[in-house]
């Protein structure tokens, strides 16, 4: 099993480094498993995508985190999101209801046409924030552009913001801390929900959030790939946190994600694709990029792991997304 290769792109290369690193680690693990086929391992429960794909759900699902600007850039797609959905209609399930488009590259904040064309689409809502990979670019001018972007009617959160101590992020920790604090202060002052990116930095991230936000603050801990131990720490420290699971859960080697997906209380779970990254394992290798409709794979795999129905997963995650993003 191999992961799709993500080539560099001027507009989002820095932002995707941590995603690519995670994929490379899992790719190595998947290949190691293939080479050692006689090795006994607990196999990931199989999920069946067709029943989930055609399910006529009462609630459906909303992809709680995607990057439409990156997706369009990588596919060199010209047009609206409605055009994209029409062109790729066969790959969107019946129960798809919308998405949260996240804009995390600071230079994009002031380029209104880039993001407005997405947010003007039906059932697309937005979030803006400086990704920790871009913390060195954050300044007073960027902050002013961020504040202006946050006033757009369909913007629902500030993010993704946070800390990233992975080897691919060369931004010094002290700068990341300063930029995170500045943005959290904006969120608190404006009462915006936040989307947190935390990679290999759980303790520091928790400490800074405890310092600047009330214990009952509502936020989305995005693309969680750490252990159940740390998931419990987050849940205990912030009882209103929602934890996002991506299509990494569909891969045999993502053991930590499987445990979290099985144990997390359903009223704290969100489905996300982080599109264009993390193509589901069952998707053809010809498909290089994921899109918001593919969050149904996350739901189907979690249902299989927990031995519950896909409908139950969709019910809770849709409800949680509505609460988190005040839709």
Automatic annotation (TrEMBL):
It comes from Nephila pilipes. GO terms for molecular function: hydrolase activity, acting on ester bonds; metal ion binding. This is Putative deoxyribonuclease TATDN2. It comes from the Eukaryota. A divalent metal cation 1 binds at residues 65, 67, 160, 274. Belongs to the metallo-dependent hydrolases superfamily. TatD-type hydrolase family. InterPro entries: DNase_TatD-rel_CS, Metal_Hydrolase, TatD-like. Transmembrane segments: none annotated. CDD domains: TatD_DNAse. The keyword Hydrolase applies. Keywords: Hydrolase, Metal-binding. A divalent metal cation 2 binds at residues 197, 222. Pfam families: TatD_DNase.
């Amino acid at each position: 099993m191999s992961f799709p290769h993500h080539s560099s792109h001027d507009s989002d290369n820095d932002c995707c480094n941590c995603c690519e690193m995670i994929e490379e680690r899992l790719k190595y693990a998947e290949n190691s498993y293939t080479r050692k086929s006689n090795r006994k391992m607990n196999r990931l429960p199989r999920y069946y995508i067709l029943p989930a794909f055609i399910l006529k759900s009462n609630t459906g699902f909303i992809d709680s985190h995607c990057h439409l600007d990156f997706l369009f850039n990588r596919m060199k797609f010209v047009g609206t999101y409605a055009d994209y959905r029409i062109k790729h209609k066969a790959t969107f399930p019946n129960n798809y209801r919308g998405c949260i488009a996240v804009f995390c590259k600071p230079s994009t904040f002031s380029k209104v046409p880039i993001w407005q064309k997405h947010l003007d689409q039906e059932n697309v809502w937005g979030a803006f924030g400086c990704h920790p990979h871009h913390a060195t670019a954050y300044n007073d001018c960027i902050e002013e552009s961020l504040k202006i972007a946050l006033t757009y009617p369909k913007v629902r959160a500030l993010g993704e913001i946070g800390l990233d101590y992975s080897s691919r992020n060369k931004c010094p920790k002290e700068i990341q801390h300063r930029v995170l604090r500045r943005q959290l202060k904006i969120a608190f002052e404006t009462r915006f929900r936040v989307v947190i990116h935390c990679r290999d930095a759980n303790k520091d991230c928790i400490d800074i959030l405890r310092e600047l936000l009330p214990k009952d603050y509502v936020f989305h801990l995005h693309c969680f790939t750490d252990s159940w131990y740390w998931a419990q720490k987050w849940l205990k420290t912030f009882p209103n946190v929602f934890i996002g699971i991506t299509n990494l859960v569909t891969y045999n080697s993502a053991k930590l994600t499987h445990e979290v997906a099985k144990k997390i209380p359903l009223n704290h779970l969100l489905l996300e694709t982080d599109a264009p990254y993390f193509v589901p394992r069952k998707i053809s290798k010809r498909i290089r990029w994921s899109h918001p409709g593919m969050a149904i794979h996350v739901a189907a795999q979690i249902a299989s792991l927990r031995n519950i129905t896909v409908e139950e997963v969709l019910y809770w995650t849709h409800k949680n997304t509505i609460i988190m993003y005040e839709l």
